[in-house]
Structure to design on (384 residues):
C-alpha cells in the first residue's frame, strides 16, 4: 500500500483549514497531517493536534497562553516558527491557507525547501507573483491552486497544450449586493455584507466578495498561475456558483468545471492530485434544473473590481498596493470605522500615492506592502 502524503496545514483554524480537515478525515488512508499552524486560536489548534495526532504545531507568540496540546506535539512559539513549519522536512505537501500578505514568506519558504504547495492564499501571488512562480520553477516544484476558480482552470487545462489557450473566464456569485439598489449601498451594514448567499467563508473574504475585490485579486492570481495577458482574463456574474471557471481555446471551444459551492471539491482535488477519490460532499444532481445564467459585472456597482483590473494592467507594485489598501479598508469597515462605499475610495487614493515600479525581491515587496498599509491607515484617520 502506498504511504499517505504527509501534509502541513498553515492556517488550520480558518475556514479553508476547516474544509481541508474534512478532506483529511475522509481520506485518512491517503493523507496524514504532520504540521499545523494558527495565528490566534490556540484552543482550536490544540483540538486539531489531539484529533489528528499531529507531531508539529506552530502558534503565533501574540496568541497568548497555549493550553491543551498533547505532550506528543512539538509546539513552536518562536517568531520565525511559521516559516520553519512551511519548510518542515517531513512534509510532502504544504497547504498555504493563512490569510493576507503574511502568506508570502511561508509560501516562498515551502518552495525553496522543495515542497509542492496547495495555494489557498491569493495574496502571495498578488504581492509577489513573479517571485513565487520563479522560485517554484527554480526548485522544480508545483503550485497547485486551491481557490475554486483557479483549481477549476487547473482541472480544465490538464492534458491541453498551453499555446492553445485563448482566454480564461472566472465566475463570481456577485455577493449579497448584485441586485441591491445602487443608491442604498452607502447605508450597507457589516451584517448585511457578511450575509453571503452561497459561500461560507471568513469575514475578510466575505466582504471582499461583497465588493468583488476578491474577484479582482483572483484575476491577478490567474495571470501569474497561467501566464496569460491580463486582457485575456475575464469575470462574469454567475449567481448559482455552479460553474467555477471557463477556459476558452483558440478554436473557440470552451471547457468548464462544475461542482456545488463547497471548498472541499477544489481542496480535495489539489490534495490528492493527480489522483481522484470519492468526495466529501454530494455532487450535482442533473435530474433537477440547474441555473446556468451568466452576465457581465457592473463596474459602477463594483468599483473594486475595476481598480483591481486596472492595477493588473498597470503592473509593477500596483496589485500589491491594491491588496494592502483593501485589507486595511476592509478591516476598518468591519470595525464600523468607514462605510461600505469608502472601501474603494481608500484603495483608489492609496494607489495614487505610488509610481508602481517593478520590484521582485522579498524585502522590497514587504516594505512596499507596509508603506501602502500606512498610507491607507492615514487616509482613514484615527477617528473615522
Amino acid at each position: 500500500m502506498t504511504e499517505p502524503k504527509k501534509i502541513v496545514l498553515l492556517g488550520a483554524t480558518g475556514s479553508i483549514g476547516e474544509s481541508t480537515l474534512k478532506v483529511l478525515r475522509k481520506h485518512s488512508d491517503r493523507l496524514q497531517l504532520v504540521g499545523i499552524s494558527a495565528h490566534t486560536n490556540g484552543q482550536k489548534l490544540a483540538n486539531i493536534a489531539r484529533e489528528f495526532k499531529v507531531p508539529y504545531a506552530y502558534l503565533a507568540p501574540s496568541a497568548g497562553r497555549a493550553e491543551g496540546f498533547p505532550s506528543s506535539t512539538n509546539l513552536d512559539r518562536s517568531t520565525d516558527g511559521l516559516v520553519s513549519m512551511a519548510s518542515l522536512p517531513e512534509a510532502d505537501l504544504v497547504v498555504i491557507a493563512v490569510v493576507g500578505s503574511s502568506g508570502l514568506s511561508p509560501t516562498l519558504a515551502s518552495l525553496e525547501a522543495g515542497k509542492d504547495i496547495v495555494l489557498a492564499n491569493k495574496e502571495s501571488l498578488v504581492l509577489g507573483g513573479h517571485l513565487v512562480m520563479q522560485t517554484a520553477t527554480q526548485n522544480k516544484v508545483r503550485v497547485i491552486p486551491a481557490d475554486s476558480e483557479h483549481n477549476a482552470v487547473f482541472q480544465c487545462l490538464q492534458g491541453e497544450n498551453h499555446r492553445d489557450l485563448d482566454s480564461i473566464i472566472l465566475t463570481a456569485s456577485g455577493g449579497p449586493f448584485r441586485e441591491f439598489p445602487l443608491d442604498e449601498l452607502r447605508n450597507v451594514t457589516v451584517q448585511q455584507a457578511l450575509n453571503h448567499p452561497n459561500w461560507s467563508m471568513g469575514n475578510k473574504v466575505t466582504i471582499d466578495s461583497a465588493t468583488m475585490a476578491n474577484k479582482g485579486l483572483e484575476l491577478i492570481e490567474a495571470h501569474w498561475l497561467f501566464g496569460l495577458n491580463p486582457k485575456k482574463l475575464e469575470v462574469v456574474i454567475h449567481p448559482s456558483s455552479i460553474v467555477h471557471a471557463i477556459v476558452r481555446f483558440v478554436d473557440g471551444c470552451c471547457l468548464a468545471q462544475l461542482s456545488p459551492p463547497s471548498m472541499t471539491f477544489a481542496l480535495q482535488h489539489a490534495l490528492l492530485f493527480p489522483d481522484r477519490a470519492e468526495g466529501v460532499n454530494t455532487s450535482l444532481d442533473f435530474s433537477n434544473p440547474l441555473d446556468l445564467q451568466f452576465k457581465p459585472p457592473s463596474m459602477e456597482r463594483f468599483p473594486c473590481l475595476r481598480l483591481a483590473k486596472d492595477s493588473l494592467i498597470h503592473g509593477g507594485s500596483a496589485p500589491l498596493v491594491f491588496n494592502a489598501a483593501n485589507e486595511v479598508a476592509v478591516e476598518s469597515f468591519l470595525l464600523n470605522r468607514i462605510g461600505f462605499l469608502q472601501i474603494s475610495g481608500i484603495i483608489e487614493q492609496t494607489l495614487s500615492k505610488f509610481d508602481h515600479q517593478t520590484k521582485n525581491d522579498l524585502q522590497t515587496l514587504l516594505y512596499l506592502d507596509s508603506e501602502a498599509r500606512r498610507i491607507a491607515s492615514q487616509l482613514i484617520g484615527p477617528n473615522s
Observations:
- Residues 112 and 170 are 30 Å apart (CA to CA).
- The longest strand covers residues 31-38.
- The chain has a mean pLDDT of 95.
- The longest helix spans residues 362-380.
